[in-house]
Design brief:
The protein has about 70 residues and is mainly α. The protein is built from 3 helices and no strands. About 0% of the residues are buried.
Amino acid sequence: MNLDKWPDGKIDVYHVVDNNIMNSYWEANLPKNFRKPQGNSSNFEVVNFLTDKYVNKKWVDQDMKYTPI
C-alpha cells in the first residue's frame, strides 16, 4: 500500500478542514498515554501509526454516522 498516493481532490479538502475536527474522528479512542510519532521517529513507526489510523481505523469514533472525509 502506498500511503503517499491520495485521490484527486482529497488534499484540497484537508487544507480546508481543521485538523482538530479531523482528529476528533480519527483519534477519538486514542489512549491518553499514547505517544504519536515525532520528528525523530523511524519510518517504520510513522508508517505503522498512519496505517493504524487511516487504513485500519483503529481509533475512530464508532458513533459517528459517517467518515468526515
